[in-house]
UniProtKB/TrEMBL annotation, chains A, B, C, D, E, F:
Keyword entries, A-Z: Nucleotidyltransferase, RNA-binding, rRNA processing, Transferase, tRNA processing, tRNA-binding
EC number: 2.7.7.56
Exoribonuclease phosphorolytic domain ranges (all copies): 19-149, 167-230
Organism: Lysobacter cavernae
Gene that produces this protein: rph
Family to which the UniProt record says this protein belongs: Belongs to the RNase PH family.
Protein name (Swiss-Prot/TrEMBL): Ribonuclease PH
């Protein structure tokens, strides 16, 4: 463990460097969507719904393949100070578009779109309360909502073979006051040198890796420590997903 | 009671004509906002947050008065079939604008804006799950969030005298299969002849009254029966608000 | 009459409480539209055109039904001070959308859309000069333009049976300095306690009723007085429509 | 005259090649604007209002100069078939922007902006009915509205010296079936080879000249014939403006 | 020559009144487009690409005709001070729309759209560096790109007969310090009395003529001098186009 | 070298796995901007200009710090098939926003914003021709334009100490047909399993690292091979930047 033997680390939450926040995954949070999950990473709460539509975007029409896409939003007062409502401003900001593109790519990485058939599953990830790590919570929760939507399709015999292979989850890691830590909350995120979001599957493969040096540039050994932390964290998250899906 | 002696009425929910759905008002639902209320009218669930800002819109600057305003949104899959996200479409629809204007007017009706001082309180009403009556639930919940935000201001000694006078709540009424009924759920709303949204204060005065004949035009006696039902329903809702605020 | 025995009332225009402004309805005001009416309620002047299109919106395609819809606009200098042009600002404001939705609902209430067949009639209501009551004048004038467009369709044998049943008109009522008055002009509108827009048909049924307490909340007896005034006013307006259509 | 000796010319309206349509200029058409003119060139009717504002755009602030600008719009059914409302589409089209820029430039050509002082006069030109030549009618009418707005400023002693020098008017000319003609109506405009809009002042100087070959390119002698026709037509229009302003 | 015998003229660039700037036309400037030309008029550099698409706009579908259209843009720092990026502002300005409409009309004037068949050629004219006359350079360069795209179609045997007849080029002329001059650069353009853009074909016919008096109105004899200068300049430009196309 | 001993690799371009494309950096490409660089990575050509403005965004006003930001665009036909112009569509797409946010972050990582003072440097990166790797070319070129803009400020004595520390460059790496390769061109990019963009400084530190599994997820050893390739490639690019800046 990269942080092994670092006695002096003191995270604002009192967690150890390799400790996730409390993770909760509630299925069936709302009743209309084919999949509806409230995921919490500590105080970060994201409602993820999966909606099935028997259409595909124009670029896929007639190809016998499905599509999985995502949209992301933050309620105006999910944050410490109120943000303008994107619907009122008339456009989604760059951060929003970047995150929803990431969520969509992450989930498509575990779907056989031929097996899904000509239908679209849209994952709406709406942040009810933000405390850092909203995108990683969104991916982790949206995976569960996606599985529920696929089960719904299977229950109705609309598809026979399961188009989902493996599992996908995400977590952030970063270097906080010199120490690599797992699952940054807002207090850490706004005061860290390097911030990295990692998406992995249950085979230990990387799907996305986005690291940014906020302060000084990070070195190869730091990258190694961070990916190591992420691997362990994602394994825990995937266990939580399994547990939730088994209920 | 207008519906007295109507034995044959059968509401989809099994309620009597003058019966509200189960109403729940949870304060402190999220932690960042100065007021944060999850209000439920049966399966309709709206998150209402109140945000305090020490600025006023341009038209009020320097006048020593505050402002109370509202924004409304539905999560894309709060409804039976998914609606496009307004932020993605790039504009708020007419229905959204109409509802948020209504919520704002309703709440300004119980605020002395001179006593509020030069600050704005924004009520964000976001529908997590819709089953009819989202605007009336929003008004009823936003009132509680507004009171909490004002208490927060008082606790910090930013204002001394309470700018809120009385209470405001709202309910829908309608003529369903010939019988006036209170608090329409979606099944009734989509199959009724007349639909009316009523906003009243705790003195029994009308603040807003918006009636629409969906099928045949309504008569004077029907209007009387509907406003009678609304009066009784709103008295109950105001009692629920008091109870929640006393906790 | 609600205002009976109120000797002290003094309206800015010198009208009695139950008196409409001078109403004029000129058909054929412009030459391209299938129906084109300039309606005046005193100094309020609205040009209402009805345009027939042999298409329906997507949600009605193939259902054998027609559609009636409305758009509303104010010329930038129809008002006392110039308003920004909505086309230049890049969006229609909430008030505009609210009014055009109201006009559309009001007129659909007197049309059998099956008999209209798969075509759309669009009512464009453009305010040339505003002095209060633009939406009620628009509804009253648009009804006449709609009838003219239907007559045009009948003359060309495109439809055989008249899809319009009854007549629809609208008027505002309000409580001005304590007295219920009919058909508020701008001077009254900007200084009244309660303002209500009422849409009725020629059978005395209510189609829309939208009342707003601007100052103190209104009581049940005030509501009764206001709807009484509106009933009488609308009867007069429907007589004016008939007269215009008989020319 | 260019068209002299062309016996066979037959304009759809029966006019001679050098004949304007009937021109009417009604001042005081609406009551709120500082200048308000309904101008008609035959069936083309444009409402031109002049609005005075005691502010200038940012690029002129503090320079002691005024600004004159224009906006242009067509009512959706001013034309033979209904056009989408630009406010509803969310933007002004290229043709609209081009025309309003032209109107603004044309009128600034007769205004001493130093004498106007730090205020803006906005000319709104809204087409109530279109039959070709809306931009030239708009310029011709807007000039009269502008003079009225300046007279209003002078009457209130806000400016002492008249900032307007000379007069400005506009007309279209074109080659219709081989013959140069003045003031094209819609039937001619949609079937002509060359179309030219000419703006001139009362000293016979050109302010704008915009010629477009719709069919074959035009030759130097045709250009001469067209500008000759325009000169004569504009002299007539300026006489009409004077007459209207003398009433 | 209009400027003959004007000894005192001193253009900032040292050119004689009837002298073009150095004109360069580089074909094949980028490799993806069917036609790609970098045109320079002195320091003004515009990249013109021609893109072939086997579709036509909706209004032409099924008519057996093609379409030629243009888009224009300036890189944000093609100018002396940085302009906002139109994509970031969310709309193209009026000047941009006006110019791209002009380029499209100019090029359609030399294309037989029946012979082109149901395909669209889009000319993108992007200004890399601006020093006056960007629209005239764009037209002159876009013509060459258009020819290359047509040759590409012919080489692939998609069309048999050449749909382009003649050549089209454009130049600006203006009255600078009292003297008519050809091909204004930015220093002249921002300090001249009259500015005129002229588009002509190789038969000496006018396709577009847009003259604007910036300072005093221009007289008939000035118009003659300017069109004379333009004729000579465009003949030179067309020779340059031929030369480039012969390489 | 990660690819050592992989005899069978055959890149479409014939390059070895660890070989960059030909890189060219031309300073002073256009003349108005304070820095103007045309950077080529093979057939990818990006024009990067740096514009200095003596203002900062609102959130920095009065803090004595400067700002460095970037905008990115592709000319419509810089690509194999024409893309819609973002200015015409009315918004920048998610990919564009994501890239320009990345460029801005990358360059801010080598600027001491206190030393820059209250001014903004905007890097406009416009793709003239695309063949893969436009964002990495843009970062590499924009760094040089930024240095030129800072030198310009120093030459004018507007700043005394150099606010730029170190150098920043970027390159893409990916796994193409099983082999890690450096600097993907379009043919490789559209057919690779993993694509990673890496931004580093001249001290060998990572500034950004964005890896995406397009096909199968990538393993830890592949990540190591890719970052190793990137380190070597960026060292070469930084040498090229130095060389260009020394000219």
């Amino acid at each position: 463990m990269a942080a092994a033997g670092t006695p002096a680390i003191s995270r604002p939450s009192g967690r150890t460097p390799e400790q996730l926040r409390e993770v909760r995954i509630e299925r069936g949070y709302t009743r209309h969507a084919e999949g509806s999950v409230l995921v919490s990473f500590g105080d970060t709460r994201v409602l993820c719904t999966a909606s099935v539509d028997n259409k595909v975007p124009a670029f896929l029409r007639g190809k016998g393949e499905g599509w999985v896409t995502a949209e992301y939003g933050m309620l105006p007062r999910s944050t410490n100070t109120r943000n303008d409502r994107e619907a009122a401003r008339g456009k989604q900001g760059g951060r929003t578009l970047e995150i929803q593109r990431l969520i969509g790519r992450a989930l498509r990485a575990c779907v056989d779109r031929k097996l899904l058939g000509e239908r679209t599953i849209t994952l709406d990830c709406d942040v009810l309360q933000a405390d850092g790590g909203t995108r990683t919570a969104a991916i982790t929760g949206a995976y569960v909502a996606l599985v529920d939507a696929v089960r719904w399709l299977q229950a109705r015999k609309e598809i026979s073979r399961d188009p989902i292979f493996g599992a996908v989850a995400a977590v952030s890691v970063g270097i906080y006051r010199g120490v690599p830590v797992l699952d940054l909350d807002y207090a850490e995120d706004s005061d860290c040198d390097t911030d990295m979001n990692v998406v992995m599957n249950d085979g230990g493969g990387f799907i996305e890796l986005q690291g940014t040096a906020e302060g000084h540039a990070f070195r190869r050994d730091e990258l190694d420590a961070l990916t190591g932390l992420a691997e362990a964290g994602i394994a825990e998250l995937i266990a939580k997903q399994r547990e939730a899906l088994a209920r």
